[in-house]
Amino acid sequence: MTAVGIDAIEVRTGRLKLDLAETFAPEMGDDPEKYTKGLGLFASSFPDAYEDIVTMGANAAHRLMERKGLEPQDIGRIDVATESAFDNSKPVSTYIAGCLEQVYDGDFHHANKGERKFACISGTQSLDDAVNWILAGRNRGRGALVIATDTALYARDSSGEATQGAGAVAMYITEDPSMVELSTEQGYGSADETDFLKPNQQFPSVDGKRSMQVYLARMREALTDFERAAGDTHPDDYAFIPFHTPFPGMVRKAALLGYRHMIRGTEVEDELAEDIGRQPRRENFDSREEFEEAIKGYVDDLKDTDAYREWYGEAIDPTLDISSQVGNWYTGSVHIARVSALLHAAETDMDLAGQKLLVASYGSGAQAEIHEETVKPGFADEVEALNIDDQIETRQDISFEEYEQIHDRHNHEKSVELEPFTQPDEEFVFDGWGPMNERKYTYIQ
To answer: For the chain, what is the domain count?
Structure first.
């Protein structure tokens, strides 16, 4: 079977930075460690007055196409995943295509365009759609452009406010990819849940405690389902495990439960048994409550073992570096976790070619998906061409008062004029409204 996967990635973060410890925490009356240690977040990215989900997506896609020497005729479909859309009919992909047509001689009239919605997992679903399109032989030699773009805003003073973020990830999907090849085996966990939703509203309604429970339950189901297709998993099978990262603290919980699942009945469990005992088995308990209490005790002991700490430091920690500095990007979240891991591997000269990633995506409402990816020999050249570190470093710091202004500027329920904090340079910008209330965009030289 032909290898299909991600040939190239580009990332675009919002141009503004809110420092959570120095700027946000004092205004909230909070200890900074609530964010830096508890949530695992140090800063959030925000879009400037001229940025939005279209400009971030288009700018990421444009840089990808320029770097790879692509023209519109090389692209057979453009799929955009977002939960920040501003139109219930016209997809964001058409806006992004329109932006790109401003800077290329050709057009994208031949390209299939769409918009995916299933909370944060829709970025991975769009990736799956593109892979399946190529595997089905419908691409006629063309690649697919998959863009995950979001402005993840929460209502002021809500529990999720500190996890906000804004950015886009553009991925080019082809045969014989340079970065990673996707497995055909996938696992799913899905249920009708109301943990996080936006019923005709911009800002989400969130049951925080319930959302964490649903995230972990769906991830467990997806891992079990994946193993039905691909066989048992083991911690040593994967160089990295990128998770959907609403905030790094959530991944700590998911990774611990995933590790417990993967070592059950293995030599790792046997080696740990002398110190913390064997994992509780349901058949040894009279009630589910007693069993779950025993599991909780085992997991608490497991997280303090050297074996788990070493595994977490190698397989999970490197996936969180970017997220800790930019916040939650919704549909792009798991994809910046992948980028973060691959950047770490390239920077530390890891011989990663041929090794596997276990990618764990999630979307509220709710569904998780788990699949494998095999790293290709060209991954290092691709990720080293990214400039995400420079983007993060050069963001404009904003004060709390400026944060309030930018939050209002991007609140769809308000009409707020705001002078930009930064100067656009060779990029697409939002340029006002058209006669049918459509958004207009211009490329600034």
So the answer is: 1
Q: Cis (ω within 30 of 0) for the bond into 155? A: no
- Kindly compute the dihedral angle of the four CA atoms of residues 91, 96, 101, 104, in this order, to the nearest 10 degrees: -150
The pair of structure tokens assigned to 226 is 């994946």
Tokens of 250: 């959530």
Instruction: Give 257: exposed, middle or buried? Use CB within 10 Å, 0-12, 13-18, 19+.
Output: middle
Task: Of 277, 5, 18, 297, give the one whose Cα is nearest residue 134.
Answer: 5
DSSP SS3 for 423: coil
One DSSP character per residue, 256-306 reads HHHHHHHHTTSHHHHHHHHHH-PPP-GGG-SSHHHHHHHHHHHHHHHTTSH
Q: What is the DSSP secondary structure assignment for residue 363, as one 8-state letter?
A: E
| 3-class secondary-structure state, position 318 | helix
Q: Which sequence positions are flagged as catalytic?
A: 83, 120, 244
Q: What is the pLDDT of residues 275-324, one digit of tens each?
A: 999 999 999 999 999 999 999 999 999 999 999 999 999 999 999 999 99
At residue 207, the pLDDT reads: 87
Tokens coding 406: 């930018």
Q: At 414, phi and psi to the nearest 5?
A: -120, 155
- Identify the domain containing residue 237 by its residue range: 4-444
Q: End-to-end CA distance of the chain: give it in Å, rounded.
A: 44
pTM metric for this prediction? 0.97
Domain CATH for 329:
3.40.47.10
Rg, Å, the chain Cα set: 22
Low-confidence ranges of the chain (pLDDT < 70): none
Q: What gap in Å lies between CA 76 and CA 130, rounded to an integer?
A: 10
Task: Kindly tell me the burial class for residue 28, based on how many C-beta atoms sit within 10 Å of its own C-beta (0-12, 13-18, 19 or more).
Answer: middle
| Interval 61-82: pLDDT, tens | 999 999 999 999 999 999 999 9
DSSP 37-93: III---EEEE--TT--HHHHHHHHHHHHHHHHT--GGGEEEEEEE-S--S-SSS-HH
The count of other CB atoms within 10 Å of the CB of residue 224 is: 14
Q: Running DSSP on this structure, what letter comes out for residue 22? A: I
User: Rounded to whole angstroms, what are the CA distances from 104 to 7, 72, 92, 183, 280?
Assistant: 21, 7, 19, 34, 61
CB within 8 A of 61, min separation 6: which ones? 10, 96, 100, 145, 147, 170
Structure tokens at 9: 């990635």
- Helix and strand counts by DSSP (H, E) for the chain: 15, 15
